[in-house]
Amino acid sequence: MYKAGPHPLQSVSPLSALDYRPPVWLRSGHLQSVWSTLFRNVALAEPQEEIIATPDDDFLRLDWYRQGSSRLAILSHGLEGHSRRPYMVGLARALLRDGWDVLTWNFRSCGGVMNRQPRYYHSGATGDLSRVVGHGLAQGYDTLYLGGFSMGGNLTLLYLAEQGERVASAIAGAITFSVPCDLAGSARVLALPSRRVYMKRFLDDLGAKMTEKAHLYPDLIDVTDIEKIRNFQQFDDRYTAPLHGFRDAEDYWAHCSALPRLKDIRVPALMVNAVDDPFLSRNCFPSARSVLGAHVQAEAPKWGGHVGFVELAGDGYYWSERRAVAHARRVTGRNPELQEAD
Q1: N or C, which end of the chain has less CB nearby within 10 Å?
Q2: What are the residues whose beta carbons fall under 8 Å from the beta carbon of 228, sequence distance 6 or more?
Q3: C-beta of residue 87 within 8 angstroms of C-beta of residue 176
Q4: CA nearest to 77, candidates 65, 67, 66, 63
C-alpha cells in the first residue's frame, strides 16, 4: 500500500492557464515536449500489478497505487506510452499526495507485453476504458476522477461523451492534457517536415509492433515494405483501420475524434492544450460553447508543448499536476474556497 507523505501539495490555489509561466529558456514547444522523457525521474513506490480479462479473450494490465481512500483516479497514457511514463507517475504522485487512490493502465500491446488478439489499441477504443472504469467501480469507491494525456485524453473525453446521460454517478469529472481531439488535423500536422523526428519515432515503435504481430498472425498482417510508411495516413490506412473495423484512416479519424462529441459530455471536464504544442491542429483549441457543450472547459496556456508543462519548483511537481489537483478538488467540492479562475 502506498503511504502518502506528511503534507498535501504545497501550492494548490486558484489556477488557470494564465498561471503557467515557465522560465524563458523553456518557452519552446519542442523542448517542453521532450524534457520530461529526457530529464525527469519521478520517485514513487512500485505499484501493485493486476491483469484483467476482456470479453474477446485478451487482457489489460493495470497498476494500482492504494492508500485506503474512498476516491479513485484513473489515468490513461498517450500513443505508444505506458502506465509508468514520467507524466503518468508524476500525476499519480500528485493525486496520491492529495488523498486519492490511483489506477494507471496500459492499452493493449503497451508496457512491453504484447496482447493476444490481432487488434491492439486506438484513439477510440472506449470499450477498454469502460472495462477499467467498471473494474474500479467494483472495488467500492464512491468517487472516480478520470485523467488522460494526448491520445488517452481523446479516449477519456470520447468515453464520457458516449456515456452521456448514462455516465456513472460516481464519476465526478475529468482532466485531459495535450489532446488531439481533431485526429485528422493532428495527423496532418505531424506529417509536416518540421515534425519528422516525432513521426519517425512513432512509426518506428508502431512498425516494430506490427512486425511482432505479423509473426503471430501471418495470414492477417503483412509487413512487406512497412519501412516505407511515412505518416499516420499510410499507417492507419494499412493497419489501424482494417484491424479495428474502420473503412480507412479518414473513417477511423472521423469516428474516433472527441471534438464533435464534446457537447455530449455530462460531467465537468477540463481540456488543457498548449498553444505551442507541435502535435495539435487549430481545431484542437475549441472555444465556442456550441462545440464544448455545457460541461467542458478548454484552456490554452501559451506554453507547455506536448505533455510538457514543466515546472522546476523545489517540490518536484509540474504545473499540469497542480492544475489537475485543483480541478479535482473543485469538482468533488472538497475545497469550495479554492475556486478556479475563469
Answers
A1: C
A2: none
A3: no
A4: 63
DSSP three-state, residue 49: strand
**φ, ψ for residue 17 (rounded to 5)?**
-60, -30
Q: Which of 211, 230, 256 is the last residue of a domain?
A: 256
10-residue mean pLDDT profile of the chain (342 residues): values are: 45 59 93 91 93 98 97 98 96 97 98 96 98 98 98 98 98 98 98 97 97 97 97 98 98 98 98 97 97 97 96 88 96 62 32
Report which of 198, 200, 201 is spatially closest to residue 278, judged by C-alpha positions: 198
Tell me, yes or no, whether 107 and 34 share the same domain: yes
Residue the block writes with cell 478556479: 340
317 & 229 share domain: no
CA–CA gap between residue 182 and residue 186 (Å, rounded) = 6
Name residue 231's amino acid: N
What gap in Å lies between CA 199 and CA 66, rounded to an integer? 36
Residues 142 and 223 in one domain: no
* Secondary structure class of 177 (helix, strand, coil): strand
- Total domain count for the chain? 2
Choose the final residue of a domain: 256, 276, 300.
256
The per-residue DSSP string of 212-224 comes to HHHHH-TTT---T
Do 125 and 211 belong to one domain? no
